[in-house]
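Re-run with default settings, no changes from the original entry. Doing this only to confirm the output is reproducible before filing.
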Amino acid sequence: MSGELKAAAQQAADRGRAAWERLTLGSGLLLHGLGGWLSPGGCGPLLARSAGAAAALAFGGALLQRAPHLAYAVPIAWALAAWHLSDSSATPPPEGVAPSAGVSAGEAARAARAVMDPNGVMCITHVPRDEVSTDQT
């Protein structure tokens, strides 16, 4: 019984650690996005975006003065956004190697070979493709 309890506690700790890593990744992405939004090039856009951020903070402050219970929604909304962002930013698995321009899917590539002509000029010869005959006689 003690072994099962230890295994369950270890599994819960592993899940908690994975959730913590996912939330910290999402929080880092949220902060990075906010920093990118607040650092545009030039002085004019910087002032406009800073004024927009200040107006948003003022609106949020006024809203929290009228409805202070909404302060509990801020960490919940942040956690949900961080969780969603960490999931959507995962790198997709690599796909197989794409065929080159002259090779169709499912067809093996045929190697070209270099040949010297009688004048000493190097020529590249390609193996002729198998053409499908349309003659129906």
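The radius of gyration is 31 Å. The longest strand covers residues 113-116.
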